[in-house]
Amino acid sequence: MEKRNQTLGEFIIENQNSFAYSTGELSKLINAIRLAAKVVNHEVNKAGLVDILGAVGDTNIQGEDQQKLDVLANEKFIQTLRKREIVCGIASEEEDSYISINSSDENHQNKYVVLIDPLDGSSNIDVNVSVGTIFSIYRRVTKVGTPVTMEDFLQPGKNQVAAGYVVYGTSTMLVYTTGHGVNGFTLNPAIGTFYLSHPDMRFPKAGKIYSVNEGNYIHFPQGVKDYIKYCQMEEGNRPYTSRYIGSLVSDFHRNMIKGGIYMYPKSSKANNGKLRLLYECNPMAFLAEQAQGKASDGHNRILDIQPTELHQRVPFFCGSRLMVEKVEEFIAEAE
Ligand code: AHM
Ligand code: MG
């Protein structure tokens, strides 16, 4: 079959042998995410109709309370993942602690934990700018049939078995990896089907785009300031172009296609930056490496970090390999 006509469902079946574990498991997992993504996509697309359909806190025509979209996205993903007999625990940016599934049923065989940011960049919704969902999947490390523990969630990113994102943009895309490259699928909203539109996605080795919130410039470490000045310098193929949406998924997606670097450094205001290791940086780092790019905290590989807390933050530099290496050089030189 011509690859580009392939649906996500067909792609999952054709490639399930490359998944390290039981074949049906991957299909169930990605199918659950695909389904929830379509539901959330439908809700995100209605966001501009808030004045017509009612604002947050109002009661809608069916007598249901209108919810904030990030809360709603959280519920949709959790509901969908819960129903599939495969996930034993979920951690979400929207929940203080993790959720244990089927913990009272000794017979359950669910082996996977999912960490999720259900609606990243949600402050962009009010102004009709792209937002995204980010997900990260691990095999549990504790015994099947027992309740999950924190240990199952606090695994280094290199243990991920799958990761990906959904970008609710001009068109909606689901991009994911199971450790065999990165593939992107675009939703045909008329029939609700994802098609393989971007096979084998790769970061160009070097790029010309840098994405960072420069409003924080004076608070950045000297090495990062030096790198930003380097990006702006008139020399060789520089200055680079500055592009910052403020929506990690969208900035990452653009940079993967065009070549570039995304940075959320530490600052004098926030010692570990802003982004969360477990459900923002790790999945993006896994995708980046699978797409021949690189992800670092400025010194070390993101995927090697041993997490200590569910919601821990980490400085993040991610994108075209040579650009990430360059900022690491500047950081090392300034220290
Ligand atoms: P969120 O999880 O609260 O939405 O925050 C994460 C988002 C990223 O998508 C984005 O890159 C970053 O925060 C923007 O932060 P800032 O406004 O500080 O530049
Ligand atoms: Mg987020």
Write the layout of secondary structure elements.
Layout: H1 8-15, H2 23-45, H3 50-53, H4 69-83, E1 87-92, E2 99-100, E3 112-120, E4 131-139, H5 150-153, E5 162-168, E6 172-177, E7 182-188, E8 193-198, E9 209-211, H6 222-232, E10 241-242, H7 248-258, E11 260-264, H8 277-290, E12 294-296, E13 316-319, H9 321-334
Parallel strand pairs: 1-3, 9-10, 9-11
Antiparallel strand pairs: 1-2, 3-4, 4-5, 5-6, 6-7, 7-8, 11-13, 12-13
Bound molecules: 2,5-anhydro-1,6-di-O-phosphono-D-mannitol and magnesium ion.
Quick recap:
The protein is an alpha+beta fold and 335 residues long. It has nine helices and 13 strands.
Q: Specify the structural class.
A: alpha+beta
The beta-strand count equals 13
Ligands in the structure? Answer: 2,5-anhydro-1,6-di-O-phosphono-D-mannitol, magnesium ion
Total helices: the number is 9
End-to-end separation: 54 Å
Strand fraction: 15-25%
Uncertain spans = none
Family: Belongs to the FBPase class 1 family.
InterPro entries: FBPase_C_dom (IPR044015), FBPase_class-1 (IPR000146), FBPase_N (IPR033391), FBPtase (IPR028343), Fructose_bisphosphatase_AS (IPR020548)
EC number: 3.1.3.11
Binding site for substrate: 120-123, 213, 244, 274
Mind explaining what this structure looks like?
It is a single chain. With 335 residues, this protein is of the alpha+beta class. The chain contains nine helices and 13 strands. The longest helix is centred in the N-terminal third of the chain and has 23 residues. The termini are far apart. It binds 2,5-anhydro-1,6-di-O-phosphono-D-mannitol and magnesium ion (MG). Magnesium ion binds next to strand 3. The site of 2,5-anhydro-1,6-di-O-phosphono-D-mannitol has 10 residues, from strand 3.
